[in-house]
Design a protein that fits this description.
The longest helix has 8 residues. The protein has 207 residues and is mostly beta strands. The chain is globular and about 45 Å long. 37% of the residues are buried.
Length: 207
């Protein structure tokens, strides 16, 4: 994969990483490349923390549901998705406490994880926005649980929330997989060093 970075729209359930030109201190000096500096209270510098963790490549998912209050589709983007257990079948993802979309998704009995494909950067950006109709112009079909499966997604998993654990400024959500299947073909949408990328095409510039 290329190391060319593209700026990410900060999603509700996804870490927001700075692009290389943002990795500077407030006075404009370049961020240090050595061991992480610490503040007076012993905490790691948050910008340096995000910079270093940004070197761990992740996939990107859209977590969708139907709002039980009005029946409308709702969702958020996340790059913190991971498998947890085979028996029972469990997955997990992290959601920021400040998320305005998670309460709507959480209200549904079943939520659906959509694994996004490499050509779905625009879909991810749309799902990451706050407010408005996140599904405007998007095509989707219903999963067995009734939730949106986005056209072009590589796979989907219908899940039920098993447990939630507060962890700093995020909530770790553990969910039991009820049903799942592959969907479209193609490569995955990858998030690395503040940018979107793929295995074949390198990183993609955002407008």
């Amino acid at each position: 994969m290329s190391t060319h970075a593209a700026r990410l729209v900060a999603p509700d359930g996804c870490r927001s990483l700075p692009t290389p030109h943002q990795r500077r201190t407030r006075n404009g000096a370049a961020m240090p490349t050595g061991p992480s500096p610490q503040s007076a209270n012993g905490h790691l510098d948050s910008l340096r923390f995000r910079q270093v963790l940004g070197r761990f490549a992740t996939g990107v998912v859209a977590i969708t549901a139907l709002d039980p209050q009005d029946g409308r589709p709702c969702g958020l983007a996340a790059n913190s998705f991971t498998s947890v257990s085979l028996n029972p079948p469990l997955v997990a993802f992290c959601v920021a406490h400040t998320s305005t979309s998670w309460p709507r998704v959480r209200g549904a009995k079943v939520l659906t994880v959509n694994v996004l494909a490499e050509d779905q950067q625009a879909v991810c950006a749309q799902m990451a926005t706050r407010g408005g109709d996140k599904f405007a112009g998007l095509k989707w079909t219903g999963s067995p649980g009734g939730n949106p499966v986005l056209e072009g997604a590589l796979a989907w998993l219908d899940c039920a929330v098993e447990a939630e654990h507060a962890a700093g400024d995020h909530m770790i959500v553990v969910a039991r997989v009820l049903q799942l299947d592959t969907h479209a073909e193609g490569g995955p949408l990858v998030f690395f060093r503040g940018g979107y990328g793929s295995f074949n095409g390198g990183f993609v510039d955002t407008p």
